[in-house]
Design a protein that fits this description.
Elements (H helix, E strand, L loop, with lengths): L1 E5 L2 E4 L4 E8 L8 E6 L6 E6 L6 E3 L7 E6 L4 E6 L8 E7 L2 E2 L3 E6 L1
Parallel strand pairs: 2-11
Antiparallel strand pairs: 1-3, 3-8, 4-5, 4-9, 5-6, 7-8, 9-10, 9-11
C-alpha cells in the first residue's frame, strides 16, 4: 500500500489544519493507521492512531482535546483534524500503516 499525505501548510497559532492520508494500491486492511511527527533535531514521535477494525483511537497527551483522528473507509483515507495549533506542533507529519510510511507533509505554526 502507498500512503500519500496532504493538507499541511503554514498557519498562525490558534489556527486549524486538516491532514489527509490516502492509501492506494491496497486498503488499510487490518492495520492501525498512525500519525507521527518529527520536528527539526528531534526524534519522530507518535501523535495519534486509529484502529481499522473497531475505530478505537489513541492520542498523545499534548494533543488530546485539540486533534481528532478519523477514517473514511470508502475513500481509504484517514484524517487528522488539528485545532488550536501551537508553535510546538511544527513538524513534518507522517502517516503509517503496517510497515508503510508516507512521504510526510510539513506543518508550520507561527507564533
Amino acid at each position: 500500500v502507498q500512503l500519500v499525505e496532504s493538507g499541511g501548510g503554514l498557519v498562525q497559532a490558534g489556527g486549524s489544519l486538516r491532514l489527509s492520508c490516502a492509501a492506494s494500491g491496497s486498503t488499510f486492511d487490518d492495520y492501525a493507521i498512525g500519525w507521527f511527527r518529527q520536528a527539526p533535531g528531534k526524534e519522530r514521535e507518535g501523535v495519534s492512531c486509529i484502529s481499522s477494525s473497531d475505530g478505537s483511537t489513541y492520542y498523545k497527551n499534548s494533543v488530546k482535546g485539540r486533534f481528532t483522528i478519523s477514517s473514511d473507509n470508502a475513500k481509504n483515507t484517514v484524517y487528522l483534524q488539528m485545532n488550536s495549533l501551537k508553535p510546538e506542533d511544527t513538524a513534518v507529519y507522517y502517516c503509517k500503516s503496517g510497515a508503510n510510511w508516507g512521504q510526510g507533509t510539513q506543518v508550520t505554526v507561527s507564533s
